[in-house]
Every structure is written in C-alpha cells, then in structure tokens.
Design goal:
212 residues; alpha+beta; four-stranded antiparallel beta sheet; two-stranded parallel sheet; 36% helix; 21% strand
C-alpha cells in the first residue's frame, strides 16, 4: 500500500512537472517574437542614430574646412570633400550628396530684407535642386538673422545621405538623412573661387554676386 501511494505521488509530480514545462515552452514561444523585435529594433535605431550623427559631422567638417580658407578652386573643394568624407566611415561614401555654397549679403534690391545671393557653389553627387550663380535665395534658405551684415558672406554646407538599415526588420525602406549648417569665413569677408566668374565675389563692394 505504501509503495502504491509513493508511485501515485511520483506520477503526479511528473505530470505536474510536464505541465509546467509545457507552460514555459508556450510562454517562451509567445515572448520570443516580442523580445526579438525589441532587440533588433534597438540595434537598428542605434545604427540609424550613429549614421545621422556622422552626417551632422560631415556637414560641420565641410563648413569648417572651407571657412578656414580665403580662396578655393574646384580642385581644392574636391580635397575638402574627400577629407570630410572620412567621418562617414564605415558608411558608403559614394552615395552621399555634398554641397558647399558661398553666399553674399547685400542691401535689399526690394523690400526691407537684405539680399542673399549665390557667389559660387560646389556640388558632389546629383542634388535634386541646384543653386545658380547670382541666384537670390529666400529667407527659408538663408534666415534673416544671417543677413544683418551688408558686405559680408556666409558659407552653407549641406549633406544628404540615403540610409538603408542593415537588418531592415523593424525600420524598413530608405531614410533620407539631412544636415545643413551656416558658417562665417574666418580670414576674409568672401572666400573667392578661381573657377568662377568674378572669382566668386561681388563685382562692387558690398554688392550682390551676379552671373555676369
């Protein structure tokens, strides 16, 4: 009788253990997709933030290297863009769009807001829109706060990068990372460009840049 009771208890214990294992297996199967999604999502977000930070650094580097000079050429800007691209590593450099533009601030041709005209622009990659020599830029491109000093100039450095997540499990498709930054020339009022008409500066003192 004692043996029979012990056998019954062992059987119940085994059955209960089997039930608990079954419940644990079901719980694990339910939680696994959630845990996997959270893990992969955190990896993708961190990689995306890192890529965005590199785009910001590239724009700042382009602006910083350019504004340290008083004169440039296309060859000089090729060197600047190549040096700046190092900060993108290990991202692909060949898909990055880079643009550096020198902009003159002059008295308003109409209205009360000072004009901001394009003196020269350097482009790397196929930008969807282009700046032209002498083009007057609106306040959405160059804010009024940067137009206060007539006879000065600003340099606009812009970067666009088509970022595609490596895993693509949570964040899918392609993200267009963008950054733009304004900087003032450090050693002269205007940064001249030997490959542009009028050397990439206004024809008259404190005047606008023109295409003639």
């Amino acid at each position: 009788m004692m043996i029979s009771r012990m056998t019954s208890l062992l059987a119940r214990a085994k059955a209960r253990l089997a039930d608990e294992r079954g419940v644990a297996a079901v719980e694990f199967a339910l939680l696994l997709p959630v845990m996997l999604t959270m893990y992969l999502g955190s990896v993708e977000v961190s990689q995306g933030l890192s890529a965005d930070r590199k785009v910001v650094l590239l724009a700042r580097t382009l602006g910083d290297l350019t504004t340290q000079k008083s004169a440039v050429s296309t060859s000089t800007m090729d060197t600047v863009s190549a040096a700046g691209s190092v900060v993108l590593s290990p991202l692909k450099v060949n898909v990055a769009l880079m643009r550096v533009t020198s902009i003159a601030i002059s008295a308003p041709s109409s209205g009360t807001v000072n004009d901001a005209t394009v003196c020269w622009t350097y482009v790397k990659g196929s930008w969807p829109t282009a700046y032209t020599l002498g083009q007057k830029l609106d306040v959405t491109t160059v804010p009024t706060t940067l137009r206060t000093d007539i006879g000065s100039s600003v340099v606009l450095a812009e970067v666009q990068y088509p970022y595609k997540p490596v895993i693509g499990y949570v964040v899918t498709g392609q993200l267009q990372l963008k950054e733009r930054i304004f900087m003032r020339p450090r050693v002269s009022s205007y940064i001249t460009n030997s490959d542009v008409i009028n050397s990439g500066q206004p024809k008259t003192a404190s005047g606008p840049c023109t295409n003639s």
